[in-house]
Amino acid sequence: MLGPLVHTLKGRSESTDEGDGESEDKSRRRWLRFLVPLSLAAIYHARIRPWHRRWGTTPREAVGALPGDEFVREPADQVTHAIEIDASPDEVWRWLVQLGQNRGGFYSYDFLENLVGAGVHTVDRIVPEYQNLEEGDVIRLAPEDYPVSRPDSAPEVVHLEEERALVLQPSVDEPTWAWAFVCRETDEGATRLVARMRSPEPSSRLGAAIEYLFWEPAHFVMERKTLREIKRRAESSESAPIEIEID
C-alpha cells in the first residue's frame, strides 16, 4: 500500500521541481533579453560614442575654436574628427577643395551614397576645373533633381581661406548646421586636417532619436573614410604634377 503512495508523492515532487526549474529558466532568459541590450546601450553611450565623436583629435582640437564656429554660435551638438597627413597643407588642399557631389565626390563610400541615388563619383586625381572655389559657390551633397532634395542638400561655401579653411552651410532662414574642414601645418611640415560639424537642437524628439541612433554614427563612418582617403591621396601624390585634360 505504501509503495504506490511513495512513488506518487515522489513523482509530484519531481514534477514540481521541474516546473520551478523551467520557471527560473524563463525568468532568467527574460532578464537576459532586457539586460544585454541595456548593457550594450550603456557601453555605446559611455565608451564608443565619445570615442567616435572625437576620433583622431587631440584634446585641444576636440574643444578648441576653429574657423566656422561663428556660423553656429550656440550649437546643441558638435562633432570633431581629425587626421595627420604627411604632406604639406597646399597638397592636402588640392584634394580638399574638390569636395562635392557636383565636383570630385567625397572620397568616401560611393557605393553607399549611390544606393540612395546620390550620384557621387569620387575622382582619384587632381582636376584643374575643381581647383577654383569661392565663397558663395554651392557644394551639392546630392543631385539637383534628387527626389527628396532639401535646401541643406546644397550648402554654400560661407568661409574660405586658401589652403587653410573651407566651411559649408545651407542657405536657409532657420538655424542650421555648419561643416568645416581646417588644415593646420605641424612643426614637422605635416598637416593636421580637422573636420567639425556643429548643429542646432533637433526639431523634435523623433529627430533627436534618429540623429543619435543613425545619422551620428553614419556621419562618423563616412567622414572617417573621407579623411583617410584624402590622407592616402595627398601622401601618395605629393610633388606629382596636376593632370591636365586636353580636349
- Quaternary state reads single chain
Q: Provide the gyration radius in Å.
A: 27 Å
The tally of beta strands, per DSSP, is 5
Structural class: alpha+beta
Largest sheet report: 5 strands, antiparallel
Compose a concise summary of this entry.
The chain has helices at residues 2-53, 59-63, 89-96, 110-115, 205-237; strands at residues 77-85, 156-161, 165-169, 178-185, 191-199. The chain has 247 residues and is α+β, with helices and mostly antiparallel strands.
Keywords:
globular, disordered C terminus, 247 residues, 5 helices, disordered N terminus, five-stranded antiparallel sheet, alpha+beta, 42% helix, single chain
Question: Helix and strand layout, with pairings?
Answer:
Elements: H1 2-53, H2 59-63, E1 77-85, H3 89-96, H4 110-115, E2 156-161, E3 165-169, E4 178-185, E5 191-199, H5 205-237
Antiparallel strand pairs: 1-5, 2-3, 3-4, 4-5
Characterization of the model:
The model is unreliable at 2-10 and 241-247 (pLDDT under 50). The chain starts with a helix and ends in a 10-residue tail after the last helix. The longest helix is centred in the first third of the chain and has 52 residues, at 2-53. The chain is built from 5 helices and 5 strands; from the N terminus they run ααβααββββα. It is globular and about 75 Å long. By secondary structure, it is of the alpha+beta class. It has a 5-stranded antiparallel beta sheet. A hairpin with a 3-residue loop joins strand 2 (156-161) and strand 3 (165-169).
